[in-house]
């Protein structure tokens, strides 16, 4: 696969995503203006919020993601973590990256990992303490190669931008629904004059329309994000094999992840805005293990048994049966 072509594609997708985000926020602003008769205040305000969110995401997005999961830099006095750093350095050289990504560890018993960063030279790889505990060197190499591939392809630029945008859409959605609920529960000054009552009723209707539109935009955004995420995972799996020349390492790691998912809870600190960054869904949503139109529409990750089957070139039914019996 041509990394340069993939990088250019991801750059174009990121620009397109940012443009669509600004367009959606401007549309929401126009709706606010139309409902409240305050044009262009609502439009300017929401475009301003969108720009601030994008700039804030570009300057501190990766740090925010790492902070949200309480990640810490590796402790090189620990043999496991020192070995992890060595693996990251080796695969950085193999991938032809100029600078080794920063390496972080988050305390969680699950096996999982992600990469983040708007720029290749300022990227980071983070793994769970469960990964260090349960994977051998070969399997860890497979996972790290997968994450290095995301950095090399500039998937991290696209996916971190998606996190920032989705976070904003969710905030607008929550603001509208909570304002609506607060006004409805408080009665909106019911004992006031009739003129005031009609004004509150107008605001309630306006907030309801805004909440519904924001929810619709958020849903459309999530579906688009889910589709992008699934494709990225398959590509990163393939490129991880290119880097390590060993499909068994990553497939072995995915097997352990699938088996552990039956017993462990969600990854601490992971949210719907960051779940697509991880190698496996940290929120353990069952839709990611299903197939069909709706599953394909709402899953962030492809089914693990399919990923293993592709890596090992065997029928996915066999792998699925093995995981179900195991």
From TrEMBL:
Regions that span the bilayer: 15-38, 44-66, 157-180, 200-220
InterPro entries linked to this entry: HtpX_protease, Pept_M48_protease_HtpX, Peptidase_M48
Record GO cellular component, one term: plasma membrane
Topology with respect to the bilayer: Multi-pass membrane protein
Binding site for Zn(2+): 146, 150, 233
Record localization: Cell membrane
Active-site residue numbers: 147
Annotated family: Belongs to the peptidase M48B family.
Name the record gives this protein: Protease HtpX homolog
